[in-house]
Amino acid sequence: MHDMISFTTQPHSVPSASLEEKKIIDLINRFIAQSDLNRPFEDIEHNVIRHGPQVSYPAFAMDKEREKVKKRGGIVKVVAEPGEFPVAIICKGKWIIANDIYELEKFYNKVGAKMKVSWRPGTGNPGFVPNPEKPGMARFSWKK
After folding, report:
1. What's the predicted TM-score (pTM) here?
2. Is the four-CA dihedral 101, 127, 81, 55 of positive or negative sign?
3. pLDDT in tens, 121-133
4. What is the mean pLDDT of the chain?
5. Per the structure, how many domains does the chain have?
């Protein structure tokens, strides 16, 4: 899952590890369990959604896995980035496909949500830079 956007106030990404995030994850898994008997809600190992969205990964890793991040030489680059495209979006019951980062940005703009700075195209701050000593890992990059 790339992101969870709440429309309860100004559209925003749901805070990581919040009750709202857990409620959404549980709701999705309950609906899946109703139509796929091989994925009972109570059997967490078979839940489709088992953690928060990708958008929260860098902050989660730095907050909850700081020592692992240091040991690994950074955060997993492909998880920190917006992901491989196309991505499916469901918004208020309507399905949309974003074929690239620009279409994803267009969706965020259309619903009035802010796209994560490190995901925005053309910002001049990619957010992360590859760690040349650890392939597949990235370190934080700050705009100067």
Report:
1. 0.81
2. negative
3. 877 656 778 899 9
4. 90
5. 1
